[in-house]
Amino acid sequence: MVNFNLKTVYSIAKKEFLDNSRNKWILVLTGLFIILPLLISLAFSGTDKIFGGMDNTVLGLVAISSLLIPFVAIILGFSTISGEDENGALSVVLSYPVRRIELLFGKILGLGSVLVVSIFIGFGLSGVIITLAVGEASWAPFIAFILYNIGLGFVFLTGSIFISALCKSRTRSIGGAILLYFFGPIVGMFLMAIGAGMGYKVAEFQFPPWMLDYQIPLSPPDLVQTAVPVAYGTKVIEYSGMIINIPEYMTYAYFAFIQLTWIIIFIILGYLLLKKREI
Amino acid sequence: MVSKTIMCPNCKNQITIEGSPGERKIITCPKCNTRGGFSFPGEGAISKVVSGSSAIEIHGLTKTYNGLKAVDNLSFNVRKGEIFGFLGPNGAGKTTAIKALLGLIHADTGVMKIDGHNMRDESIEAKKKLGYLPERANFYKNLTPVQTLDFFCELKGENKSVILPLLKEVGLEDAINKKVGNFSKGMVQLLGVAQTMIGKPSIYILDEPMGGLDARWVKSIREKIKMLNKQGATVILSSHILSEVQNLCDRVAIINKGKLIAEDTVSNLNKYLNIKPRLEITVKGLDGKVPSIINELKGVEAANAKGNTLLITCESPIRVKVISALEDAGFVIENIITIEPSLEDAFVKLVEGDT
């Protein structure tokens, strides 16, 4: 049985939150989370209203959020182990009565809290402003949009912590983080190459019908870009220039399961690497 | 203490030596000056010592990196209440040994105990007794020193009322609202010292605590170490500043290439290594030549001249004879400095002899 002290996890999480919530990059990106929805909403505005409707705003925003949120999560996590190992802080923490699993969960919770707060402040605040101005909103899909983005953030956060536990130095972690960020597009290109090999005219946007079945679970940003329209009742999406019907089995539960699976895989891998790591 | 009579492999002279079980000693044959090492036997004897009075016990520690042994079968004990110097040239394996002791790296073999707690299965209990300052201490740049110590207090379950007194004790009371990211290297090091004192640990492991600091900070850290030891704490001090180690430490262990090559008090090391006091005399018009009267003097073991400076190796009672002989021969003595055997002498002799 793994021993686990929740008080220690809380202390580490609190420290991570305090330290990282003052990170200049995070403050700038939280500001972007507020400004971007308002700008997109302005773009959808009609003649009589300053802002466009919430639904259009969210559907317009999802492409940007699925690029930005992984970026924020990676900034938070990519050097949390390798960087602290390099500068000596990790050896001090582990000379205290702290287990490595407590350190890992403390970091995930602390950094995750920064992510959640910045998403809530950013998208939540802009959502309230738009709703007040327009006077109408479908709250359930908007909440689903926020939750999928939080899930996306946690996938990339745990992924970047895994990278940080894998790499010996901060510099190497940057390389790993870049690879993680572009993992989705790499998977997409790989699948397209297989499709091309099978005779599909990929250059003319003719993709194999099974492509979405693999692309969605293997590329968390694409998952969110599909899940949010589904939450708004859309049955078709435009994918790489092609109109695709979203398979019936892709429901809330399916998307949540995939996100959770990624998070669990990254936590297990991160723990195994951190346990073996020589500080 | 146990005594053992051994035979010099060179001249067959019988030498009696004393030491603790498991201790390794460097011996110089008084007859032919041949130097060698001897380890007192007794695995069982070591654990006997440990359970009674050892704050730290390392036995048979080995750590290999890519087939190269960074630490090779290292064993030593640190007694409760002593300041113990842990020395070695760069790359000797000091930091590796300390990290293995703390469980930060995984040793290939070896038993490590802190205050009787085995680090393999009682590490959490062991770490409660410990204060550690690494060679490169850095903390969280967006936190203030108060928030930093608050975090470490929580990890040790210590009351947070100690934070301000601790910051005052290390001289950081004027920086409590500053972010650690704006601290100088010395201030970060002092914050590191403050965090080691959280929970009043009984054992301190300080890896190069004075490295790269100016004299003001060095003095401050030296005083802290003395104070902690006075309060009953055991301190392991790893440092390149050998004069500091000599002044502070009760005993030292010297390692080279991962192996223990000596463990004793500084004076005993010098005795075993046959390091004698030296006399540095500035003589007017010496011109780089050793006067024949000095070479003929009984008790002078070595004499060298460089410019107007005469460097003579001899025991203390011979010093007066040397000075008198020079004066009687008409030399004008401008300055006299006596150089007692130092840790540096022992260190250089041991490490160079081991290379």
**Main CATH class of the largest domain in chain B:** Alpha Beta
Structure annotation, total helices of chain A = 12
Distance between the termini of chain A: 24 Å
Please summarize the sheet with the most strands of chain B.
Answer: 6 strands, mixed
* Overall residue-averaged pLDDT value of chain B: 87
Instruction: Name the poorly predicted regions of chain A.
Output: none
CATH domain fold name of the largest domain in chain B: Rossmann fold
Provide the domain count of chain A: 1
Per the principal axes of the C-alpha atoms, what is the gross shape of chain B?
globular
Strand fraction of chain B equals: 25-35%
Q: How much helical structure, as a percent, in the residues of chain B?
A: 25-40%
Q: What multimeric state do the chains show?
A: heterodimer
Our count of domains of chain B comes out at: 2
Helix-strand sequence of chain A = HHHHHHHHHHHEEH
Helical residue percent of chain A? over 70%
Number of strands of chain B: 18
Shape of chain A: globular
Offer a few descriptive terms:
heterodimer, A: two-stranded antiparallel ribbon, 12 helices, 2 strands, B: 355 residues, alpha+beta, Alpha-Beta Plaits, 2 domains, six-stranded mixed β-sheet, four-stranded antiparallel β-sheet, 33% helix, globular
Structure description:
The complex is a heterodimer of chains A (279) and B (355). Chain A has one domain (6-276). Helices cover 74% and strands 3% of the residues of chain A. Chain A is built from 12 helices and 2 strands; from the N terminus they run H-H-H-H-H-H-H-H-H-H-H-E-E-H. In chain A, helix 6 packs antiparallel against helix 7 (139-166). The radius of gyration of chain A is 20 Å and the shape is globular. Chain B has 355 residues and is of the alpha+beta class. Chain B has helices at residues 43-53, 94-102, 123-127, 145-156, 163-169, 185-196, 215-230, 242-248, 266-272, 292-296, 316-328, 343-354, and strands at residues 2-7, 14-19, 24-28, 35-39, 54-65, 68-79, 83-87, 109-114, 117-118, 130-133, 203-207, 234-238, 251-256, 259-264, 278-283, 300-306, 309-314, 333-339. In chain B, a hairpin with a 2-residue loop joins strand 5 (54-65) and strand 6 (68-79). Classes of the chains: A mainly alpha (279), B alpha+beta (355). Chains A and B meet through helix 1 and helix 5 of A and helix 3, strand 10 and helix 4 of B.
